[in-house]
């Protein structure tokens, strides 16, 4: 079952359960998918949907931290609830050991020798960790490995 089908099924379940927050969050995600389909005139893949959901989670984390700084805990709580709903559709995050193993494999297979090869390593890793690891943190790990 594709990720879009899972979202649509979850939307129906949320309607039946009258769960307004879950329904609204899922509708927002499906609207983003539809926007990509209309704008780019193409079928959206699971990979596209995965990156879209990851982006939405990141946006909500940023918003939650800004609401917390502004003292708006009511809005922060809504953002955190949306994050929880969106992450339920994402694959399980990679553990630190899995990330390190993939990083070692990437460096070995791309024969990376220094910082000039960082793009090769990122290119090799990105499809394997999409939606399962924070690319910013991964980039930092690669930098420390390649400079060491």
Please render the helix and strand layout as text.
Elements lengths: L2 H15 L2 H21 L5 H24 L3 H15 L8 H15 L7 H12 L5 H13 L1
Helix pairs in contact: 1-2, 2-4, 3-4, 5-6, 6-7
What's the CATH class label of the largest domain?
A: Mainly Alpha
The CATH homologous superfamily of the largest domain is called: Uncharacterised protein YqeY/AIM41, N-terminal domain
Strand content: under 5%
**Total domain modules:** 2
Low-confidence stretches: none
Count of alpha/pi helices: 7
- CATH architectural group of the largest domain: Orthogonal Bundle
Structural commentary:
The structure is a single chain. By secondary structure, the protein is mainly α. The protein has 2 domains: 85 residues, Uncharacterised protein YqeY/AIM41, N-terminal domain (Hypothetical Protein Yqey, Chain: A, domain1), CATH 1.10.1510.10; 52 residues, Arc Repressor Mutant, subunit A, CATH 1.10.10. It is built from 7 helices and no strands. The longest helix is centred in the middle third of the chain and has 24 residues. The termini are far apart.
Short description:
This protein is an all-alpha fold. It has helices at residues 3-17, 20-40, 46-69, 73-87, 96-110, 118-129, 135-147.
């Amino acid at each position: 079952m594709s990720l879009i089908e899972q979202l649509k099924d979850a939307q129906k379940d949320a309607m039946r359960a009258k769960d307004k927050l879950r329904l609204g969050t899922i509708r927002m995600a499906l609207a983003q998918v539809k926007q990509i389909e209309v704008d780019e005139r193409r079928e959206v893949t699971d990979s596209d949907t995965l990156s879209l959901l990851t982006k939405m989670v990141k946006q909500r984390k940023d918003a939650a931290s800004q609401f917390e700084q502004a003292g708006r805990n009511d809005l922060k709580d809504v953002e955190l609830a949306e994050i929880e709903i969106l992450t339920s559709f994402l694959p399980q995050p990679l553990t630190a050991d899995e990330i390190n193993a993939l990083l070692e494999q990437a460096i070995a297979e791309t024969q990376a020798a220094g910082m000039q090869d960082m793009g090769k390593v990122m290119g090799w890793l990105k499809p394997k960790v999409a939606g399962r690891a924070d690319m910013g943190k991964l980039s930092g790990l690669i930098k420390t490995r390649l400079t060491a």
